[in-house]
Each structure stands twice: as C-alpha cells, then as structure tokens.
Design a protein that fits this description.
nine-stranded antiparallel beta sheet; alpha+beta
C-alpha cells in the first residue's frame, strides 16, 4: 500500500470482514439551531416509522405552571434536551433528532451502503421539513473491539496483531507481557481539507461491558472542519468513510487483517 497525495494513511482496499470487530458506528450532522424541532415532529416520524417504529423522549422536565410554547422551546434549547429518538424494533439502531443535531447510531452495522440507506430518509426529512441552511459539522465514528479468542488468535501477542506505531511502549517484547492497561489518544488534522481526526485506542473493554473479556479497542472519529452545503452531505460522508477505512487498515497487521476474513467488494459508492 502507498499513501495518496495529502493523505495520512495508505490507501486500503475496500473489504467486507466476515468477522468484523465493529461494535458501534455513529454518524452525526450538526446545523444551526432550529427551535421548531422541539415541537412534535409528526411529519419527520412518518418518514422514519417503517424502519424506526419506536419513539422515545429521553428526558422530560416538568416545569411549574403552563408556559407559552415559545418560552418552553427556548428553555429546552438552552438546557440541551436530547430531543427525539426513533428506534428499530430490536433497538440496535437509533435516529436522534434535536434542535441542532441529527445522529444515526447502530450496533448492527453490516456495510456502508446499508448504513446510508438508514440515514437517507432522516437527512431527507430534516432537509424537507426543517430546511437547515447548512451543516456546520459532519462526523463519522467507527468503534471496533478486537477479541483474540473469537478470531482463533488466543495467546498471540498484540504486537503481532497491531502496528508498533499504535501500541507504542506496549509493543516492546520485555514490557508487553506485563501491560495491564494502555490508552492513547491522537488528535490530527486531515491534510487535504483540514478536517479533524480523533484516534483513541486502548486495551480493555467497551463502555458498559465490565465483565466481558479484555480486548483491544480502536475508536476512529473523523469530521469535517468547514461548512457543508445541504446537497453535499453524502459526498462528505463518503469521503470520511474512505478515511476511516484507510486508518483502520493502517492500525492492524496483515495477520489480523487475514484473521478478520476480508472479502473484497466494490468501492463505487464509498
């Protein structure tokens, strides 16, 4: 693999892992606040209901007396209520809509095109019903948990599975057997467009899983740094998706790549 011009990571072949280690994928788009969203998003829900039939209002503050709707909207915008959450029947995928943010989160990621299929109705509904002027930030986050036992790699040193640049001191043979915890955070700018990269990785367990096996977490969060016109948000996401793919492949060794079971697939969409 060779690095493309202006890129931090070598260009990686697009593959579909049969033993994909992903445990959560999140897309977030931010826009200037629209207080009307804090009303009842009936039309938005109708667009989502076939795929996301469940509805939640995560927080419900009880204010004394009956306040005018305009004042209630202003108060809720200031205290940062999380808005509305639309969930699939199995609750593995969620669309969250608030006054300045739209988020798609899933723990049931299969491939990029299917993820976009879930996101498009939400983006279309947001644009058609609420007409944001632009998106101030577009981000894509992939969180992987690599568990050696599930890959037939029990007992294989992490230094054989991850790049030494990722492991740092934990890759030193004399140190590795005794490492109890290793956490790193790297924040970078994307050279070609000035976007932001946050790479977090650690030896441990995913959040909320306090009793499961120890593994290695690779958390990649890529985001735009400039305004994205409403009609170009999918282009921005496709570009971020390519960056995330290249970064993940850079983090892992050829041995781990092979153990994950890569099947080459077309990259005509992103």
């Amino acid at each position: 693999m060779t690095a493309i011009a202006g890129a931090l990571f070598p260009t990686a072949e697009r593959v579909l892992y049969r033993k994909a280690p992903l445990f959560q994928v999140t897309c977030q788009v931010r826009f200037p606040p629209i207080l009307r969203i804090e009303g009842s998003p009936v039309e938005f829900q109708e667009r989502m209901r076939h795929r996301f039939p469940l509805l939640e209002r995560p927080l419900n503050f009880n204010f004394p007396g009956q306040l005018p709707p305009e004042i209630m909207q202003a108060i809720m915008a200031q205290i940062g209520l999380p808005g509305w959450r639309f969930l699939t029947d199995d609750k593995k995928s969620t669309i969250a809509l608030s006054t300045d943010t739209l988020i798609l989160t899933t723990s049931d990621y299969v491939r990029w095109e299917r993820f976009l299929d879930d996101l498009r109705p939400a983006l279309s509904g947001l644009q058609t019903i609420y007409s944001p002027g632009y998106f101030s930030r577009v981000s894509l986050r992939y969180q992987d948990f690599i568990e050696r036992e599930n890959l037939g790699l029990d007992g294989v040193a992490w230094s054989k599975l991850l790049k030494p640049e990722v492991l740092g001191e934990a890759a030193v043979p004399e140190i590795e057997p005794y490492v109890q915890q290793a956490t790193r955070l790297l924040s970078l700018k994307i050279p070609d467009d000035g976007g932001d990269i946050v790479l977090q990785h650690s030896l441990g367990r995913p959040a909320g899983n306090v009793q499961g096996p120890i593994g290695y977490i690779i958390d990649l969060d890529f985001a735009t740094a400039t305004k994205t016109e409403v009609g170009y948000v999918e282009d921005a996401l496709n570009k971020l998706h390519s960056h995330v793919r290249d970064a993940f492949r850079w983090c892992i060794s050829d041995r781990l790549h092979a153990a994950l079971g890569p099947d080459p697939i077309s990259d005509t969409i992103g």
